[in-house]
Specification:
The protein has four helices and no strands. Helix 3 (86-99) crosses helix 4. The protein has helices at 2-36, 75-78, 86-99, 113-123. The relative contact order is 0.15. By secondary structure, the protein is an all-alpha fold. Bound molecules: heme C (HEC). Heme C binds next to helix 2 and helix 3. GO terms for molecular function: electron transfer activity; heme binding; metal ion binding. Residues 28-126 form the Cytochrome c domain. This is Cytochrome c2. InterPro entries: Cyt_c-like_dom (IPR009056), Cyt_c-like_dom_sf (IPR036909), Cyt_c_1A/1B (IPR002327).
Length: 126
Amino acid sequence: MKTIITSALVLGLSLSFSVSAVADDDAMMQAAGKELFNKCSACHSLDSSKNAFGPDLSGVVGRKAASLPRFAYSEALQKSDITWTEANLRKWIAGNDQFVPGTRMRHVEITDKAEQDYLIAYLKTL
Ligand code: HEC
């Protein structure tokens, strides 16, 4: 009986630990992503009332590519028929001009899987 109680306690404890670890992980990833977003923010303003060189990225995860009405996208991106799923965002930030040849966005290359994770975690918060 004593071992059952002890193991239940240990299980309960480790469960609550892992839940808070996941929450910390999210915050950590978003913070790291925010840092990486410095490579993007010169062109992508987070203030949608501002006209930036690149389109507003708030709500971009899950959005159809080239779908903002007030932005002059390249023909290449307009014809791409891409939806910004996580997988497609990964390809885009790993090498946007290989993924969509003819895009107007200057070449970016973030190939590190962890860095891609961070950036996408951050993009989800926008
Ligand atoms: C030098 C300016 C510049 C930089 C730096 C830049 N972008 Fe862009 N971005 C653009 C432009 C311009 C477009 C529109 C491309 C087109 O129409 O072909 C774009 C488009 C996008 C899109 C598609 C949005 C849509 O509405 O379909 C995403 C996603 C994106 N950028 C993410 C990023 C991320 C993430 C970074 C940083 C790693 C980044 N960009 C860095 C200029 C930039």
